[in-house]
Automatic annotation (TrEMBL), chains A, B:
This is Octaprenyl-diphosphate synthase. Belongs to the FPP/GGPP synthase family. Its cofactor is Mg(2+). The keyword Transferase applies.
Amino acid sequence: MGRATEVDIVVMAAPLADRPAERGGIEALVSLVADDMERVNSFILSRTGSDVTLIPEVASHLISSGGKRLRPMLTLAFSRLSDYEGDGGVRLAASVEFMHTATLLHDDVVDESDMRRGKLAARMVWGNEASVLVGDFLLGQAFKMMVEVGSLPALDVLASAAAIIAEGEVWQLSAAKDLSTDEQAYLGVITAKTAALFAAAAEVGPILGGLGERERQAARAYGNALGIAFQLVDDALDYGGVSELLGKNVGDDFREGKITLPVVLALQRADEAERAFWSRTLENGDIAESDLEIAVGILRRHGTLEATVARARHYGDIAVEALDAFPDSPLRRALIETVAFCIGRAY
Amino acid sequence: MGRATEVDIVVMAAPLADRPAERGGIEALVSLVADDMERVNSFILSRTGSDVTLIPEVASHLISSGGKRLRPMLTLAFSRLSDYEGDGGVRLAASVEFMHTATLLHDDVVDESDMRRGKLAARMVWGNEASVLVGDFLLGQAFKMMVEVGSLPALDVLASAAAIIAEGEVWQLSAAKDLSTDEQAYLGVITAKTAALFAAAAEVGPILGGLGERERQAARAYGNALGIAFQLVDDALDYGGVSELLGKNVGDDFREGKITLPVVLALQRADEAERAFWSRTLENGDIAESDLEIAVGILRRHGTLEATVARARHYGDIAVEALDAFPDSPLRRALIETVAFCIGRAY
């Protein structure tokens, strides 16, 4: 359950063509918001500037390291879908990306991660101190940018998300190594930790556009369900996904003792020997070289990677349904394809 | 230059009576804002509540550990001084205290501190992870509370302070162990790291009261100058203060290699042997048992603790002058006494 980063999208995109039923892409979304996204990118660059040179160094290490910027694209897409014409969407999108980057910097410290998006984690280059403090700086800048937009309801949505995300992270920390974590508790954690920012990123669109409660709820529901689906697929990918194609971050969650849904479901079906295996590896952190392979074997035997992706598909359906609140348009179709794309990553 | 915590006030208060010229107290301020402060305290308690029990545990460890809550008292005092009658002051005061608590939690991780306010630092009890994440949670809650008050100008002031504080911290991190830090650079760091929150805490008072730019600037100037004075006295106290009374945190800055003003001034006056001493201890972190005593001896020989406090007195005068923008009242007199009190801590 490392926080999902969009670089995975790029890595796993190729095999999609084999499963036409779930073909989807973010190309349409990317191209429809491309102009605004360019402004978001310059905005991000200008707001990581500081006379304290360590700040742009650390921030750009992470920000320039790729990632498809799915979250800010949601803000831009839902602003446009809500016929908003001002430039507040660009600022809020940049805020959303800053919030995300800040949590990545702090996550790496919390998880003691060595790598992030295929590069050394910032904390490995500049130390934990810099990661904590530059994260705080980005969070402060995010709030400044939001205030500039001047929408109190949008501020409320994003500030609430910030608190909920941190609460989810602490929850995850408390639940780490706890084999009694059940599916409901797990969904609670990822709803807070991952989906809250997707939901907020989408909801501020209709807020900027001055639309009503119906569209706000719809955007929020889309973001929330997409975020859950995204994280579940990420969890499956961390054990190699359903296709046995091994991506580069495989095994991170296992090594960090994180109890993700594939494991929660496997624990429900576990015999005594398997329970002892999970207890030794995840609870006690006693992990040998060959244990990841054994873990993947158990998950495959019980089909829990497929079961996890099946749940992702369920949330994907909810996300698509939520879009009914908006009239058909190229952008709405692009958001539907984005759902299929996120789920298709699992294959 | 550990972040100043108000517990020092309590520890160092007694000897004040010996210097009637600088007699001052915060008793008047405390008693004038007591009713509102009680509401701030209940508010703080209610907003650290979470089903994730680790959050109230960590937060209350620090929040209940004392501290005079000088920063939120500034918000309450300047709200009242500005004839503001609503309950926004209580919420903003609680936000200010949350921002402060969040930075303390993160500071301890950055400084690898073992103790805070005479107790084990939260990170020693629950780990760095919990300190980082609970700090993030408190920051999120702080912004939520600010949004509830609904004043965009107040939000702007506090969000800017959040970014500036973090910028100051990163700056301090970059300057750590750097013997070429000069007085101006040092003042820049503490203006950002410490004074920015004092300034913002005060400025939101006249904003809530609907007063004009003159009172806003005056409140800001008071908070800024008081914050600088407060930090300078704290820096002197970290080497035992001017009275050679050793408080309990003496030597923290020295052991952490922090270049504070007493050292900056001593470096200006250093001969070759002294420069070699500072280089070995602060730059290279090669510190023997007896080195703190040697350091204090050098600072006393050059009179740089007195010189640091003289500068604090200069900022104290600026703070008092700034209050001219407000008519005489018991509250205004209490704010004047507070300045004398903060400086009197040094003796």
